């Protein structure tokens, strides 16, 4: 639930926030976003999310007429307005008002502070099941607001009692609807490198894991699922969640593996000691 919302610099309660129905983000799906969260009451890895947010805007040719420092200040102000101790933070840039449903004028910058739901510890201890689906996202490297395929399949996911969807295409494993995917072979951690949205948690996990394990960013073929000893997913509000099964294919022993749980602990320790680059407290 959105508690507070900042629209072009003006902060209001989430229940009072609105944009015109003539916004290109609504009429044409012309919008990008990024999502981060707090840790210990402060924005977590916001500076890295801003880099990706700005890159998405540039690739979509959406002008982002704010500096990183200005956006960061608005994030802190929105968090303060919300009164939330821990929150999800959404950055949204839409095409803005259009006079004729197509002509671009000025974009709209929206920042929200939302109630945060992190992956429960039970999922880390037991692992989750994924449902596979053939799909290659359009402009996968851009974090657009188009999640139509994931929403369309929501009933199938529920019917299969799956945690999420694992996309694959032409024999290549890609990503989940809102997370990145990893397999473990022995002491090597492997994750897809192309046709995916490269997550901030993904990058952080790779950097942390590389201090202990061999890591590979490369094409991951579908048949490698059967060869994997372990698998896990990463995401902003999921941190790291072990994967026990994909469809009817059990991964390794079907339980969270030692490498996965070790990397999870490395990430939790990093999160515990993290200090944001900006502070407006």
From TrEMBL:
Pfam families membership: Aminotran_4
GO BP term (any one): carboxylic acid biosynthetic process
First-level EC class: transferase
Involved pathway(s): Amino-acid biosynthesis; L-valine biosynthesis; L-valine from pyruvate: step 4/4; Amino-acid biosynthesis; L-leucine biosynthesis; L-leucine from 3-methyl-2-oxobutanoate: step 4/4; Amino-acid biosynthesis; L-isoleucine biosynthesis; L-isoleucine from 2-oxobutanoate: step 4/4
EC number: 2.6.1.42
InterPro entries assigned: Aminotrans_IV, Aminotransferase-like, BCAT-like_C, BCAT-like_N, Class-IV_PLP-Dep_Aminotrnsfr
Keywords: Aminotransferase, Pyridoxal phosphate, Transferase
Catalytic activity reported: L-leucine + 2-oxoglutarate = 4-methyl-2-oxopentanoate + L-glutamate; L-valine + 2-oxoglutarate = 3-methyl-2-oxobutanoate + L-glutamate; L-isoleucine + 2-oxoglutarate = (S)-3-methyl-2-oxopentanoate + L-glutamate
One MF annotation (Gene Ontology) recorded for this entry: branched-chain-amino-acid transaminase activity
Cofactor(s) needed: pyridoxal 5'-phosphate
Family affiliation: Belongs to the class-IV pyridoxal-phosphate-dependent aminotransferase family.
This protein's name: branched-chain-amino-acid transaminase
Organism for this UniProt entry: Rhodocytophaga rosea
